Amino acid sequence: MTSVFLLIGRLIVLISLFGAAKGCVICDYFVLVGEPTAITCPIITLPVLHSDYNLTWYKNGSATPVTTERDARIHQREGLLWFIPAMLEDSGLYECNIRSLNHSNKRTINLTVFKNNNGLCFNGKMKFEQKVTSTNTGKIICPDLEQFKDEGNNQPEVHWYKECKPGFLEDKRLLLAEGENAVLIRNVTVQDRGNYTCRMLYTYMGKQYNVSRTISLEVKEKPLQIQPEFIYPRNNTIEVELGSHVVMECNISSGINGLIPFWQVNDEDVEIFDKTYREQFYEEGLPHGLAVSGTKFNISKVKVKDYAHKFFCHFVYGSQQFTAYIKLEYPARNIQGYLIGGGVSSVFLVFFTLFIYKIFKIDIVLWYRDSCHPFLGKKVSDEKIYDAYVLYPKNRESCLYSSDIFALKILPEVLERQCGYNLFILGRDDLPGEAVISVADEKIRQSRRVIIVLVPESSCYSILEDVSEKQLAMHSALIQDGIKVILIELEKIQDYASMPESIRYIKQKHGVIRWKGDFSERSHSAGTRFWKKVRYQMPSRKSGSLSGLHL
């Protein structure tokens, strides 16, 4: 019975030993050329071997076991495969085989013997990876040195280098771990990352060998422990149209992963409040250990009821619950469009009014005068007797134009009889024997306007013949006295070069009105375009016959 229990115990040990071998199919080892190494068979954890089991090393493809002679450069001893030292030609595959009476198992080892990079104490591809976290106390461990003890079973002293340079242990944050092949780093920072090399001397059969390991240290930044806070919302409102689509999003920032906010309406989850709402959660990592957590849901079609509630976003941190809300509002009327439209309309109206006024200016002014006629009688008297002084050329036998007919018949017919103006016409209203110069000077000063009738042929322009130099000076004084002059052409005059300088100046300043009618009764109507232009430049009438006047 005892033998049965012993057999069962041995089977359990065997199963555990062989079950541990599932870590790798081909296990990789690497060693610097010229340095010793001891390779462990990955099937079992040494030195747990019993006399009932046999472990043997083979060079791959060879049926001959590796020698057990201790003075051989490559030999097996105490279950380990030793290379003292390793050479480049040793790179390759090796097998470890464990046999018992009824079972057998083996594993393959891939050994790489390497050289250091030029100018460095390590090979960039043959390093042990280790990680520490910032702000904590980290430990850099020099691995796989358990087999390299001296004859007194003591661990030789380990020397450390950073980026192949000694002296980095002078930093007060760093110290050697007592009883361990390790360096402690207090308050780890990102500046501590880099390549660390540990080196010791191993003595075997009276000869010393270097044993070195290079560790690539990675510093992982510790997440910042900050108070979570809402990024959005912040108790605000948003304007949305009825029936529109809107995405309600809530997100928070923190250094804590897994902190997820959630939506509620009327103390209910949004999906319970409205089954058309679909809430989605997300989390995004940010630099320096920060994180953004969020949740959002879609309102595919905003309803009237959605405007009546606040949508609350919550998250729980510690024993506290934090809350922020969004409220939907109807959009405010866009008065900007109305203002722009009104402004454009006003500008258009102004330009249209100016355009209409420019075309119908004369008719508008004449209509205004006639409409306000009852009020114009209250105007203070300017002590003028005549509305206009008429100066025209005297006809000769060779003249082709009937200036006398126009000045003595047509002009009085329209302006005096139809419009009620009071004219002084030289040659009609002056008394026989009166001096022309004195009469003209006096009557012009008593008139509100001066009408000068012009003809194209200089032979008909007898104004210059009937006056003296004093009257020419009087013509120049018209401007100084502030009397408005109305020039009327009986026919287009091509050249004003022969005209007096005062006439040319008046034409340039006030322009001329050209007579385009004939001497028929149809041209005697005050409502024609020509007479409207004349009346426009005439002063307003206080009284007179306006019957039959058409604008």
Automatic annotation (TrEMBL):
Keyword terms of this UniProt record: Disulfide bond, Glycoprotein, Hydrolase, Immunoglobulin domain, Inflammatory response, Membrane, NAD, Receptor, Repeat, Signal, Transmembrane, Transmembrane helix
Keyword Glycoprotein: yes
Pfam families attached to this UniProt entry: TIR (PF01582)
Domain Ig-like: 34-112, 140-216
InterPro entries (UniProt xref): Ig-like_dom, Ig-like_dom_sf, Ig-like_fold, Ig_sub, IL-1_rcpt_fam, IL-1_rcpt_I-typ, IL-1_rcpt_I/II-typ, TIR_dom
Transmembrane segments annotated in the record for this chain: 338-360
Bilayer topology annotation: Single-pass type I membrane protein
GO biological process, alphabetically ordered: inflammatory response; regulation of inflammatory response
SMART domains in the record: IG, TIR
Signal peptide residues on this chain, from the entry's feature table: 1-23
TIR domain location: 384-538
Cellular component aspect of the GO annotation: membrane
Family that this chain belongs to: Belongs to the interleukin-1 receptor family.
Database matches in PANTHER family: INTERLEUKIN-1 RECEPTOR FAMILY MEMBER, INTERLEUKIN-1 RECEPTOR TYPE 1
Protein known as: IL1R1 protein
Organism: Struthidea cinerea
